[in-house]
Description:
By secondary structure, this protein is mainly alpha-helical. It contains 8 helices and no strands. The model has no long low-confidence stretch (mean pLDDT about 90).
Amino acid sequence: MTARTHDAFAFASLITVATLYPPATINISTLMAGLVGNIVGGLLPDIDQASNKLWGFLPAGNYFGRIFRRFLWEHRTLSHSLVGGYLFYKILEWLLPKLLNPNYINVSVVTACIIIGFLSHLIADSLTKEGIPLFFPLKFNIGFPPISTLRITTGGKIEKYLILPGTAIYLFWFINSHSTELFQLIRSITK
């Protein structure tokens, strides 16, 4: 999937989870950090590519991306697996309390937002012809549907004209059908 599709898929996943399982408390700082974290999480599995959008946000990021990706084997290996997800989670668990002030930002909520983005990336990539090595280092890929010829091509017409617009339609439908819950969540932020 392309970065744009991953962004949309991550946001749709976040809205869905936040509506169905709203956080007990949330403030505007946590909301903003969570939204940014969700987009980062949605792009995080592709950190093994020097061309990942995340590298572009850092000074000399593309240079560091070319170096860092060598530690992650090749594309769609460790970073697209359960082991990689667990390692990213443990890094976040250690790093986020050092980066974010827990007096103002609920680090657990931000961590959850990042993980939701990360998992949405894996789900989206499982729809592609390549699938994902969910059980890396075992050398087989998982995809949906199980027959790879029925899956989509990354950046192809089905992604551009069906998956991406379908995600937007889903968001419109979900927000419309869960507006009461969403308004309650928004009201809880302003308190």
